[in-house]
Design goal:
two-stranded antiparallel sheet; alpha+beta; single chain; about 15% strand
Length: about 525
């Protein structure tokens, strides 16, 4: 059966090859009848090669591939050179890896991975700086009421900024209005007391909630609330809501500052956060998302966050209370990253140098400015943690602890779960190197943590479990993991407090969305 199939295939291939050759011959005959047209020798050679390939396929099907038929000269194939020779030829011509001109090769700077020098250990000498900072309020505010404490942050200078810029913006908008329409505002421009009443109502709307802001003035029994109409008429509130402004639109912006709408306001408020209160020993930096889906160049998409679309801000908070001590809006990368260069470190067995700190680490360094040398303990997640950052923080007087990405530059090879696999229940591994300890532990997933605060050791935690006799069971985990879990949630605590007083009235103006978060008691 196989021979018959082979013969049929050979016959079909022979017929197709013959038909192809006959068609070429017919074409040659037809073309030769054209007056003045000659068939070149190159064309004959090309047609001969076509016929030879068909014959070779036919002969291969019948008796194997024995080469071209007798009498047919096919051009020999050039032998393929080894890969190393081809690569060297391409580099000499300025192509391929390590492109260059002629024989001149670009010299690559050595870039060590700094994974050497780590040693597995059960003993770690901690170098924890003593805490010498002042914590709590910088003055005695115990005799002040909550409203008076609030006015310590929103000073008279802030209220005058809000009032003046709102009046300025209202005049700019009403330039084309008729006199009767504009008289409602021009006859009665806003004042500082009215601005305080207006923003007080905004804060109250986060407590007494309605689906639309105008329903707070409704006379329907289900919505009726006499307080709002007693403070301010609805139409006046609508005008203030429309004209509220924080900056002069006509002021030049030569540097294209994306926060020019908020810069004057933030420059007055953020320094008050830093000067009126000093955080306790435990602090934590993290990012915070402000929900916003409008058209804006600084909107971020973070699919793993509860708020996936919004404006990202960096915050440094006290771990216990969630007090926001420093705060910055992320407007994009501002400076290029510097790569580690030769001579900028003490060798591959040292920690990566300061030039290896990436943008996320530089954010942490900018947030902690003003707390250096006081012995604060800083806790951060794997977006920021790196040996280079922790070395720098340790030099300026901070103790550090944070989860890390296993492949981060400078971590030991044992932290890579693909190289050293662990099973749940295995004893944690501890590695030390020049004042830092790396913990590798298998929970539900591999966990890598870098710390300068805790040494090797485990503690026992009681958790709920169906496998336990009374619905609970005990697990053993590294002490450094327990310390991290206890003090990491400062920014999460601040975000939680914000949600208690958020009103549901959205705005198309991005700066109003940011401005509204400062009307929260936790600040």
């Amino acid at each position: 059966m196989e021979d018959q199939d082979g013969e049929n295939f050979a016959d079909r291939l022979s017929e197709s090859s013959s038909e192809a050759w006959d068609s070429h011959e017919d074409q040659l005959d037809d073309d030769s009848e054209v007056e003045g047209m000659e068939i070149s020798s190159d064309e004959e050679i090309r047609i001969g090669h076509v016929y030879a390939r068909h014959r070779q396929q036919m002969d291969g099907a019948e008796r194997g591939k024995d080469g071209p038929p007798d009498g047919v000269n096919t051009p020999p194939r050039r032998a393929r050179q080894p890969a190393a020779e081809r690569r060297a030829r391409g580099q000499a011509r300025g192509r391929g890896r390590g492109a260059g001109r002629g024989n001149a090769r670009r010299q690559r700077r050595p870039n060590p991975d700094f994974r050497g020098g780590w040693e597995e250990t059960d003993n770690f000498d901690r170098n924890i700086p003593a805490f010498t900072g002042t914590q709590g309020p910088t003055e005695d505010f115990s005799q002040l009421s909550p409203l008076e404490v609030f006015f310590l942050f929103f000073t008279q200078e802030v209220w005058e900024l809000l009032t003046n810029e709102t009046n300025r913006y209202a005049d700019q908008v009403m330039e084309g209005w008729d006199a009767d329409r504009a008289s409602a505002w021009r006859d009665h421009p806003t004042t500082v007391p009215e601005m305080k009443a207006f923003l007080g109502l905004v804060l109250l709307m986060g407590v007494v909630r309605c689906p639309r802001y105008h329903l707070h003035w409704s006379t329907m029994e289900i919505f009726y609330h006499p307080f709002f109409s007693a403070i301010m008429p609805r139409n006046r509130y609508s005008l203030l809501r429309r004209f509220l402004h924080l900056s002069d639109n006509t002021a030049p912006n030569p540097n294209n500052n994306r926060l020019h709408k908020l810069e004057s306001f933030l420059s007055l408020l953020i320094p008050k956060f830093r000067s009126l209160y000093l955080p306790k020993k435990m602090i934590s930096p993290d990012e915070s998302m402000i929900k916003f889906k409008g058209r804006l160049g600084i909107v971020q998409y973070m699919p793993k966050k509860p708020i996936k679309w919004g404006i990202k801000a960096w915050a440094l908070c006290e771990s216990d209370s969630g007090y926001t001590w420093n705060w910055k809006v992320y407007t994009g990368r501002e400076e290029a990253l510097q790569a580690a260069i030769a001579g900028d470190h003490d060798g591959p067995n040292s920690h990566p140098p300061e030039s290896s700190i990436y943008a996320s680490g530089k954010v942490v360094l900018s947030l902690v400015e003003g707390l250096e040398g006081k012995g604060y303990w800083l806790f951060c997640d794997n977006f920021y943690t790196s040996p280079a950052l922790f070395q720098k923080l340790n030099e300026i007087g901070f103790g550090c602890c944070g989860t890390a990405r296993p492949l981060a530059k400078g971590l030991p090879t044992g932290a890579n779960p693909k190289v050293h696999k662990m099973k749940k229940g295995d004893r944690p591994k501890y590695y030390k190197k020049k004042g830092q300890m790396c913990v590798v532990w298998m929970d539900k997933k591999p966990v890598t943590l870098l710390t300068t605060l805790d040494g090797p050791g485990e503690d026992v935690k009681r958790i709920r479990s169906r496998q336990g006799v009374d619905g609970h069971r005990e697990i053993s985990r590294p002490t450094a993991i327990s310390t991290y879990n206890k003090h990491m949630g400062g920014v999460d605590k601040a975000d939680q407090l914000i949600q208690y007083y958020v009103h549901q009235h959205r705005s198309l103006k991005w700066w109003k969305t940011i401005f509204s978060i400062f009307w929260r008691p936790h600040l």
